[in-house]
Amino acid sequence: MTSPSEPRAARRSSAASPLTTPPSDAAVPVVDASAVRDMEDVGEVLGNACFGCGPDVPHGLRIRRTGHDGSTAYAEFTVQPEHQGAPGLAHGGILASAMDEILGTSAWLLGGRYVTGRLETDYLAPVPVGSVVHLTARCTGVDGRKAYIEGEARLGGPDGPIAVRAASIFIKVPLEHFTKER
Ligand SMILES: CCCCCCCCCCCCCC(=O)SCCNC(=O)CCNC(=O)[C@H](O)C(C)(C)COP(=O)(O)OP(=O)(O)OC[C@H]1O[C@@H](n2cnc3c(N)ncnc32)[C@H](O)[C@@H]1OP(=O)(O)O
């Protein structure tokens, strides 16, 4: 339930703009049963040095994936002092990175490999350093190579108040996108 005293963005049910809303004829997302294994395999390709989820990246977010259900992905991370912007509060770009990671995880559950094409964020509440941030994302439609993914970050628990909402388009790419020399 929202009230007029809440931020304007909180009164909307989704972060999606017309650009991140799937077309009316978009396909319902189908989850690939092999996608989870694929996600583990990709660690070998990427070397697990990911800023978002690499467990040993010193100043990374060290996001922990906690589960999935269909295209819905769950994860969490703890905001560290090196993630702050204003004193004592998480930097907005750091929170966008966290959203990118959980949205990308949902996209990868569809099978194949996806990269971020467009990322929109609504910041609804400040996130203090030391917070455990609970991340969720799900696919709202697939149109050709484009997967429309929405998600949110909550504080205080998986059902806590929403601090950040995001909507995105992820684009399916071949494996060579990651392996070719540039
Ligand atoms: C242990 C490890 C586990 C790992 C788990 C995995 C989790 C991973 C989590 C990681 C999370 C972090 C993830 C990251 O951080 S990924 C890193 C950030 N993203 C990038 O670096 C992507 C850079 N961009 C590109 O490489 C190219 O532009 C791509 C590949 C995206 C498209 O170039 P390409 O030449 O291939 O294709 P195309 O141009 O014909 O486009 C194809 C279709 O897409 C539509 N389109 C394109 N762009 C946009 C846009 N901005 N808004 C709306 N639509 C867009 C386009 O209109 C067209 O649609 P249609 O005309 O067909 O309808």
TrEMBL record:
Thioesterase domain location: 88-156
Name of the protein: Acyl-coenzyme A thioesterase THEM4
Record's bilayer topology term: Peripheral membrane protein
GO BP terms in the entry: fatty acid metabolic process
InterPro entries (UniProt xref): HotDog_dom_sf, THEM4/THEM5_acyl-CoA_thioest, Thioestr_dom
Molecular functions per Gene Ontology: hydrolase activity
Domain of life: Bacteria
Region (Disordered): 1-26
Homology family: Belongs to the THEM4/THEM5 thioesterase family.
Enzyme Commission (EC) number: 3.1.2.2
SUPFAM superfamilies given in the database record: Thioesterase/thiol ester dehydrase-isomerase
Locations listed in the record: Cell projection, Ruffle membrane; Cytoplasm; Membrane
A Gene Ontology term for the protein's cellular component: cytoplasm
Keywords: Apoptosis, Cell membrane, Cell projection, Cytoplasm, Fatty acid metabolism, Hydrolase, Lipid metabolism, Membrane, Transit peptide
Organism encoding this protein: Thermomonospora echinospora
Pfam family, one: 4HBT
Catalytic reactions of this protein: dodecanoyl-CoA + H2O = dodecanoate + CoA + H(+); hexadecanoyl-CoA + H2O = hexadecanoate + CoA + H(+); (5Z,8Z,11Z,14Z)-eicosatetraenoyl-CoA + H2O = (5Z,8Z,11Z,14Z)-eicosatetraenoate + CoA + H(+); tetradecanoyl-CoA + H2O = tetradecanoate + CoA + H(+)
